[in-house]
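Action item from last week, closing it out:
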Amino acid sequence: MKALLIRHPQTEWNRAGIIQGQLDSPLTPRGREESLALIRGLRDAGIHPDVVFSSPLGRAQQMALLIAEQYHCDIRLDEALQEQDFGEFDGRLLSDIRREYPRFGDDEGFQPPQGESPGQAAQRLLDFLHHLPDICPHHTVALVSHGQIMQAVIAQLLENSLENVARYHHPNASYSLLEINDDTCRVARWGVASHLLGLKNG
């Protein structure tokens, strides 16, 4: 099985540097352009998803709907694909949180108040990936998710550690390609964003 782990397009809060987590905000005009660019990129790469799984959050569902329309396939929602739960940090400026909590973003065990740690979020999504062949018979699956949890999963798969999690940052509307076989999940490519070249900033 091939699994495309896709980050949602840019939102208003992404642009403003606000932590979204389990909250939501509208797509920006650039975000809508990113969605179309992703579709073109998948087509150019010869990738044809058979089904789309999406985080229930609106910013992910909008991307999932576009993919499903283009490839005439079904959408399934799964909470395992939701962003890391940042608890009391949701809706706050990232710059403010980093000043108050220097360990935020660098410590896999740091758990925001009323939230979950990067390690807990990564394990949630990893469990889903490992069980995906049991619940889905398709060959190519698109999974629309979120930046923080995606980079934590890629770090875990490549390094078996979250020590260098920031290295695996995914821009909005980028994706990683995973190969799932029996009990193994391998990263074939990560952070693919070449389809976004040429888009205007903002």
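Closing note: The first strand starts at residue 2 and ends at 7.
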